[in-house]
Design a protein that fits this description.
The chain is mainly α and 123 residues long. The chain has a domain of 68 residues. It has four helices and two strands; from the N terminus they run ααββαα. Strands 1-2 form a two-stranded antiparallel ribbon. It starts with a helix and ends with a helix.
């Protein structure tokens, strides 16, 4: 049961992306409009049962068609930022700018922060 609950947000996001990309514009034909309405109803049903807050915004840049839930609310990015970082890593590796097989160390801190405050407090 837990695996199904974990996959549900990913499936909904994928469905929203596919629908938004395939939409033909703001005045959608009957079938895509019906599918969009069904998707919106499913997302809202999940949101109603969710012990938390769900929000997303998907816009087809070609047609302008959108599907959204709480588009004006700010949400923390949490681990979703890792996807953008990973994408950029592989993009630069494909260009030959980075070797993903090479072992590296993080750079030394350039400015003091919480870690440097702790180390000076214990010294």
């Amino acid at each position: 049961m837990e695996a199904a609950v974990t996959r549900r947000p990913l499936a909904l996001a994928a469905a929203a992306l596919l629908l938004a990309v395939s939409a033909s514009g703001e005045n959608l034909p009957a079938k895509p409009a019906h599918l969009l309405a069904k998707l919106r109803a499913r997302v809202e049903a999940v949101d109603a049962r969710l012990d938390g807050l769900l929000g997303f915004y998907v816009r087809d840049l070609t047609t302008g068609a959108t599907i959204e839930l709480r588009p004006d609310e700010v949400f923390p990015t949490a681990s979703s930022i890792k996807l953008a970082v990973l994408y950029e890593l592989y993009r630069q590796a494909e260009e030959g700018r980075i070797d993903v097989g090479e072992s590296t160390r993080p750079p030394l801190p350039r400015v003091g922060g919480a870690a440097s405050c702790r180390s000076s407090a214990t010294a």
